[in-house]
Design goal:
The chain is mostly helical. The protein has 9 helices and no strands.
């Protein structure tokens, strides 16, 4: 559980590209580990092959040494005795290698010289040394060293018997048969040790092969589980966050501009979520501005309409004022005409009054009754 939380925290802090590269890196690492294990296995098996080759050389050398010792016994030819000692030098080379390699800080050059004296292939030197240094605490290697040490003791005993045989021949003693009995016993022991050594190497080789197979299988399973877990976590995280972002987009599309995508990660989807939130905020602000602008435009339109109505009323008032002005002028003209007419009528009436008075005056002279007496008096008044 703690591992999952750790991986989840780690996943939230890295980019999507790095996550994908991490998945690739896991499987590449598994492949590299497989190659390394395969190389390790090949080197280990090559080391076992080197020890088997050394065993073959060791066994052939001791058998040939026994053969040359027998030839020396039958022919008394010193040349065979020299060949006997020459063959034993091969065992001394392997003994030098064994004694050097068991040291805490071995001199590899000395070890390589010992293997060279034992006529091992130079290509196997490094693998033989590494095999022992890697598995020296393993039971099989300990058994091989024990058998090897016993074999070296028997070779040393064989060399001693060779010297005794030489001395017997030089003294013409009758102990040859007892010496050869000892040599025969040593030979039997060496053959037994060689067979045991081969069996132990075979068992160790099978054990190592099984161990390498288990390690390979374990690494493959663990790598596969780790890669699968990583893919699952990343896929689940991506799916959940993309779904959340999609739902937020759908709400915004329906007009809910208060929607916020709560993604705090630092990868590309987190950046996309933050950009979406910023876009939503900007859209919300733009919508508010649009509403305010619509209200402002409506107010302006209303004011404009009122202004138009006022202009129309002003025009009507101006038209009425113009009509009233025109009517006033006409009235003034009529008043002028009436006054003029009145003056004319008053003038005529005065003329009539004067005429009536003249008539009355004439009637008075004629002693006739006045015809316009009332009116004349009124007029005179």
């Amino acid at each position: 559980m703690k591992l999952l939380l750790t991986m989840k925290t780690w996943s939230s802090q890295i980019s999507l590209t790095f996550k994908l590269y991490s998945i690739i890196a896991v499987f590449v690492s598994v492949i590299i580990v497989m190659i390394a294990i395969n190389k390790f296995g090949v080197d280990t098996l090559s080391g076992f092959r080197g020890y088997l080759t050394a065993l073959h050389q060791w066994s052939m050398a001791h058998k040939e040494a026994i053969y040359y010792l027998n030839k020396y016994h039958t022919s008394r030819n010193e040349q065979y005795l020299q060949l006997f000692h020459k063959k034993l030098k091969l065992h001394l080379g392997y003994k030098t290698f064994r004694l050097e390699i068991v040291k805490k800080d071995p001199d590899l050059q000395v070890a390589y010289i010992g293997l060279s004296a034992g006529q091992s292939s130079p290509e196997d030197f490094k693998d033989m040394v590494n095999l022992f240094r890697r598995f020296h605490n393993v039971h099989y290697i300990e058994m091989l060293l024990a058998i090897w040490a016993q074999g070296d003791e028997e070779i040393a005993q064989l060399e001693i018997l060779g010297h005794h045989l030489q001395q017997v021949h030089e003294r013409h003693s009758e102990k040859e048969h007892s010496i050869f009995d000892e040599i025969s016993k040593v030979n039997d022991k060496l053959i037994t040790l060689e067979n045991r050594f081969e069996v132990v190497i075979d068992e160790a080789s099978r054990w190592t092969t099984s161990l390498l197979w288990k390690i390979t299988l374990f690494c493959f399973i663990m790598g596969g589980l780790l890669g699968t877990l990583l893919i699952y976590l990343i896929a689940r995280s991506l799916t959940t966050r993309i779904t959340s972002l999609t739902q937020a987009m759908e709400k915004v599309a329906k007009g809910d501009l208060n929607t916020i995508c709560n993604d705090k990660t630092k990868d590309e989807i987190g950046n996309l979520s933050r950009c979406f939130n910023q876009m939503t905020e900007d859209l919300k602000l733009a919508t508010q501005n649009e509403k305010e602008l619509a209200v402002t435009l409506a107010t302006i339109e209303s004011e404009k309409k009122k202004n138009l109505e006022l202009q129309a009323l002003n025009q009507q008032l101006e038209a009425k004022e113009q009509g009233l002005f025109t009517s006033s002028e006409a009235l003034k003209n009529k008043m002028v005409e009436l006054e003029r007419f009145n003056k004319i009528m008053i003038g005529r009436e005065l003329d009539i009054i004067a005429l009536k008075e003249e008539i009355n005056a004439l009637l008075l002279r004629l002693d006739e009754p006045l015809k316009y007496a009332g009116r004349t008096n009124n007029l005179s008044k």
